[in-house]
Amino acid sequence: MKIFFIGPGGRTHVILWAALHSHLVTEAYCAPGNAGIAQERLMNGDPVICVPILATDIHALLAWAKKHKPDLTIVQEDRTLALGVVDLFQEAGLTIWGPTKRAFQFESSKIWAHNFMEKYGIPHPIGKACNSERETLNFATALGFKCVIKPDGLSDRNNVFVCRTKEKVAEAIGRLFGPVGVGSAVLVQKLEEGDEISLHFLCSGKSATAFPSATDHKRALDNNEGDNCGGMGTISPSPDITDTKYRKVAETIITPWLAGCKAERIDFRGILYPGVMLTKEGPKVLEFNARLGDTETQTYLTRLDQDLLPLIQGSLDGMPYQPNEIRFSDHVSVCVVMASPGYPGPYKVNKLITGLDVVAKMPNVKVFHSGTKLGVDGRVYTNGGRVLGVTAWADTRESARVMAYQAVRLIKFEGGQHFRHDIGGAPIEF
Ligand code: GLY
């Protein structure tokens, strides 16, 4: 099979790496890819070809696909999906895996998703769509300022404000409705307390099958301090929930979700990723994403114990998987993100990365690239906020953590680096 991957980051690197374990893949292309993707090899030893097209240039991506005729295009990039790349490719008769623009509304409109949860009885925090500064302030005041304020559209996590004080609410309103605000409508939700876990379902239209649990670490600094960001690392399975409870939580969410999709005639083929808070009153869906999480994917796919491609094909074909049909190892997998100093605020790029060659020899450790590029000298340089997802898997949580942090110790960026020390457990001394 000739496969075309779309995406520049860590999630795309992992999906591509997992897919390349399959003998079914005979040619692989990635637009635009990154330094890590460019260094991957197929089972037959052939290189992956990176195609210099931005993941947001969906018309150029279509033109490339029409010319090169891939058997399958795989896209899990949020901005690309929000633009309707799946509809565009399908209209051209090309096979592509991911939700359509309409189905992607679970992620691209927080207000639409909130209304869907209200209508179909999916547990979620109390919330309200607000269209003005005054309305936002009034609802946030009614919640005692303990709220989360997020823009309606697709947003990076830097625009999600977790508020506990009047001052933080004022800052959120200033930023979201101000001159460089991201839109005129926001969703204000009650701030829920508890352990947050990530769920992922492989969806094939009428059915959905849960992946194992995972815990993401969305704050930039240890002990969940610092700003919200794209995520600084993940552990799977989550240490915060038992398997039995996880299955119950998954059922509580997916049964009404599937009923809602049926009623609304939404044919969802891809990954549904609810972010869930385990509160004293039960699980509550904070938000839906409609693609694989970054860095959850790094931990799931290093545990996947079967060929990824038939799973994707099954999702496309509407095949109903049973819970135990997707096989994951019992390993614990830990991914530690190494970021550019300053992230999620301003940061510098073009810093030489060293140590990758040493880490490449470590068993059960894999470094997935998020924001990297190859220099003209053939060496790897930083090219983004989140730079690398250093991932290790082992029989126990402690071993996986020790291995991941051993690898982190060996990798250096010129100018320093920034990572959390507490992914999956208590902070590790450096
Ligand atoms: N894990 C956070 C995200 O993918 O949005």
Helices and strands in order:
Layout: E1 2-7, H1 10-19, E2 27-32, H2 35-38, E3 49-50, H3 58-68, E4 72-75, H4 78-82, H5 85-91, E5 96-97, H6 105-108, H7 110-120, E6 127-130, H8 133-142, E7 147-151, E8 161-163, H9 166-177, E9 186-190, E10 195-198, E11 201-204, E12 208-210, E13 215-216, E14 219-221, E15 225-228, E16 233-236, H10 243-263, E17 269-279, E18 282-289, H11 296-301, H12 308-317, E19 332-339, E20 353-354, H13 356-359, E21 365-369, E22 372-374, E23 380-382, E24 386-394, H14 397-410, E25 412-413
The chain binds glycine.
Provide a descriptive summary of the structure in words:
This protein has 430 residues and is of the alpha+beta class. The chain contains 14 helices and 25 strands. It has helices spanning 10-19, 35-38, 58-68, 78-82, 85-91, 105-108, 110-120, 133-142, 166-177, 243-263, 296-301, 308-317, 356-359, 397-410, and strands at residues 2-7, 27-32, 49-50, 72-75, 96-97, 127-130, 147-151, 161-163, 186-190, 195-198, 201-204, 208-210, 215-216, 219-221, 225-228, 233-236, 269-279, 282-289, 332-339, 353-354, 365-369, 372-374, 380-382, 386-394, 412-413. The strands form seven sheets. The protein has a five-stranded parallel sheet with strand order 3-2-1-4-5. Strands 10, 11, 12, 17 and 18 form a five-stranded antiparallel sheet that branches. Strands 13-16-19-24-21 form a five-stranded antiparallel sheet. Helix 7 crosses helix 10 (243-263). The protein is globular, with a radius of gyration of 21 Å. The relative contact order is 0.13. The mean pLDDT is 95. Glycine binds next to loops.
